[in-house]
Amino acid sequence: MRASLIARAVQLPIQEFIHTQGVSSAVLLLAAVIALVWANSPWSDAYHRTWHVVLTLSGLTLPLDAWINDAMMALFFFLMGMEIKQEMVHGELSEPRRAALPVFAALGGMIAPALIYAAFNYGLPTAHGWGIPMATDIAFSLGVLALIKGVPPELKVFLLTLAIADDIGAILVIAFFYTTTLHWHYLLVTAVLIGVILVSHRIGFGRQVFYTIVGVLVWFAVLKSGVHATIAGVALGLLMPATSGVSLDEFSELGADTMRDFREAQTAGDAARANRVLGAMEYLLQHTESPAERVTRKLNDWVAFLVLPLFALANAGVTFSAEGWRPLLHSPVAWGVFLGLVLGKPIGILATCWVTVKLGIARIPPSIRWGQLACVAVLAGIGFTVSLFIGGLSFAGPMPLDEAKTAILLASLVSGIAGFVLLKRAGAGHPPKV
Asked: Measuring CA to CA, which residue among 87, 159, 112, 133 is closest to residue 355?
């Protein structure tokens, strides 16, 4: 708790978040490289067999890759839901004027890649994969941005807000377009359980064990309903209260009184009273951060350094061969994904930024230049995590899925290197032109 207060006092939440993304992106990259090396080694058969090992937990039987993609990734989407909630309550998304530019940019950055993919796959069985190039990977894009010194804070906030708005779009796409047959009785159970959570929040019941059990039941009901199970994570994240019970001003005032009471109890040698005051201090410390902040702080490292690397290890392993590259060059899936991310993302982002600024709907912060905005738009073409995830939902067969994965990896690599080089050349530390 003390470490949390020091961190919040010394660093702004946005700086701490970006720092974590920068470090975790290196771990994520390492996991992806290990997956690629393993899948192309003499032990490649073992790689593919590993993720199909069937495990049974609490009566639920799923292959290992499904436990990772459906269960563990629900924690990632839960964290994403809480981050979206906090941005909507306290962050950039809470102020329409400031949120307009990155939100419209995200919208353009989703539509253009989807159209490019659709153009390459029109009338083909693979047309269903249009959602693959829509997503921006927060960890990798912010990780690359963190490598460049002198980047204006507003540029980091722009990319973060764009990526979060992009995630909202990806979640909606998964929920509405990548859902199969619906089982309404399970959806009814989900609604009842969510109602239980809302009532519990309303009456102030805060037992973490209770919410954990109900959350697992919500996940199970959504899994059985036909809606993808990770949507349960998003819904639970959005339900988390993002407002603290004790404001910082109240903490300052009450904390001073509490410390005075504690010193008086110590001076008087009243150990029982001192312990009661310590209990009051603990209450103040716990309630100066919202439940969403507290759970995010506890889960963030687990998701960043365990869940996402495991996901990359299970999903980034594509086996290459000399014969395999030839059909890839003629694959509408590969070209649609690659060009959608590398060209569609920056074109869509910059076009919507230009239109909204010209119409007066949004404005560019004075510390950001158009050149820097263009470089960040290129970085947004890094679509690793959610793109791989949607790819797995789009294709059941190995051939189109491997083509999509290869294109995602190549596009993310090209976008990351190009964005880094262009931003360095744009002079990130130079003052904006007036």
From this structure: 112
Token pair recorded at residue 250: 């109240």
Half-sphere exposure of 301 (CA within 13 A, CB side): 4
> Comparing C-alpha atoms, which of 418, 402, 363, 415 is closest to residue 135?
415
**DSSP code for 60:** E
**Alpha-carbon dihedral of residues 277, 279, 283, 285, nearest 10 degrees?**
80
Contact between 104 and 361 (Cβ < 8 Å):
yes
Asked, for residue 211, whether it belongs to a domain, the answer is: no
What's the pTM value of the predicted model, to 2 decimals? 0.76
Contact between 187 and 227 under an 8 Å Cβ cutoff? The reply is: yes
**Among the listed ranges 56-65, 290-299, 423-432, which one has the minimum average pLDDT value?**
423-432
Please report which confidence band the pLDDT of residue 339 belongs to, taking 50, 70 and 90 as the band edges.
very high
218 belongs to a structural domain: no
Handedness of CA 12, 15, 16, 17 (dihedral sign): positive
Q: How many helices (H) and strands (E) does the chain have?
A: 21, 2
**CA dihedral sign, ordered 20, 23, 29, 31:** negative
Residue 387: how many other CB atoms lie within 10 Å: 29
Give the residue numbers spanning the domain of 110. Answer: 2-179+228-244+289-425
- Tell me, what CATH number does 339's domain have? 1.20.1530.10
Looking at the domain assignment, is residue 56 inside a domain?
A: yes
Residue with token string 């036909």: 226
